[in-house]
Structures are given as structure tokens and as C-alpha cells.
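Appendix B: a complete holo record

For completeness, this appendix reproduces one full record from the ligand-bound portion of the collection. The bound molecule is glutamine. The inputs are the chain sequence and the ligand SMILES; the output is the full three-dimensional arrangement of the complex, encoded as C-alpha cells. No fields have been trimmed.
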Amino acid sequence: MRAAVITFPGSNRNGDVAKALRQAGAHVDHVWHGDHELPAGTDLVVLPGGFSYGDYLRCGAIAGRAHIMDATRAHAARGGLVLGICNGFQIACEAGLLPGILVRNANLKFVCKRQHLKVERNDTAFTSAYAKGQVIDVCIAHGEGNYICDPETLARLEGEGLVAFRYCDAEGQITAEANPNGSLNGIAGIYSAGRNVLGLMPHPENLIDGLVGGTDGRGMFESLVGGKKAA
Ligand SMILES: NC(=O)CC[C@H](N)C(=O)O
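The structure of the chain with glutamine bound, as generated:
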């Protein structure tokens, strides 16, 4: 598994996600947003969390127009894997890799806390190490994590099984109280139609070591690398 982690001006989780990928056995290349091409043999493009361009205009709106996003769209169109975490989810939506958009949290506050998530399906490249319906405990840290889309898109996401994760309580119940940002249907992450692009607001890369609070994030990187070994 060869992963290209993109750095935008203001990215701050690029090192964390590279560490999580390496821990799972991936080879990691760091790629600058202004580059036009991905390294030869890239299997996975990672759009990391952070505050690209200081969150000006709308989170991810400027980064979504970076040169490397042309190569990333071409990679996705060929069926290549793309993972957008938090600001990376916002960038993926702004770049047209995923439908819908992330807007200000319903309470208009930056939310930074532990959060339970329900894994909607485990037959994808990103979730095979989890059980279907498993409740995992991860971190969230965002100001614009409120996922919205038009009713037709929402019906398609639900109908085609493209919701990847939902916010839930410790028992796995999807409730308004367990929803930290007002996202439609408690959506915390979605897949593209081909399920080769995943965007999610929570940070699995920050829960990969028991020493810092938990390991429920590891499954995502083990799923990705388990499907394809480092060259
Ligand atoms: N942790 C992140 O990636 C934050 C994303 C974005 N800056 C927000 O606040 O919504």
C-alpha cells in the first residue's frame, strides 16, 4: 500500500495520519498541494485534517482548487482510493469528489471531544477490520462539520448505502443528543458512488495508541493496508 498524504497550507494532521498509516504497514509519500502529479504507484490519496488557508471563505473551499486535486480527481476516476479526514472531508466535498457540503456546526461553536460512531458497513476498503454496526470511540475537532445536501442526494446516499458512519451514543443509538453538529441523519462520513472515496469528520488517526486514549481508529488503517501490502 503506497499512500500519498497531501499537505496544504494550514494542514496540521498530516503527520498524525502518516504515523497511523506507517503503523499499519503502508509506505507514505508526503506530497505538496502545488504539485501536479501523484507519485507513481500511489494506491491511496489522503487529504488530512487541519485549517487549510485559515478556513477562509468556507473550510476547504480554497484547498479544493489546488493543482494536486486535478490529479486526485483523476486517481479517483480510475477507481483509486481517497480518504478525506475532517478538513480533508471538507476539501473532498469542495473539490466535487463527494456530494454535499459541510457548514457551521448547528451550535455555532468549535466542538472538540470524544464521540461514538456507528460503522454502517464493513464491506469496503476502509472498514473491513470493523464489524458491521460496531460502535467505535474516536475524537472530533471541528467548527464546520454539519453535513448538508439536497433531498435527492440524501435519498441516494441512504438508498445506495453510501453513509459510512453516523454519530451515535455509547449504545449505538442515533439520537439528536448524540449528534454534535446538526448533520443530516447523523451523518459523520460518506462514500462516493464507487465506495473508493471516503470523507469523514472524526479523526481515526488520533486514536491508534492506547497510551494516548484508545485504539478504535486503527481499524481504518488496518483495513486499508490489509487490502494491499506496501511495495
Ligand atoms: N480538525 C480539522 O480538520 C478542522 C477542520 C476545519 N478547520 C473546521 O474547523 O471545521
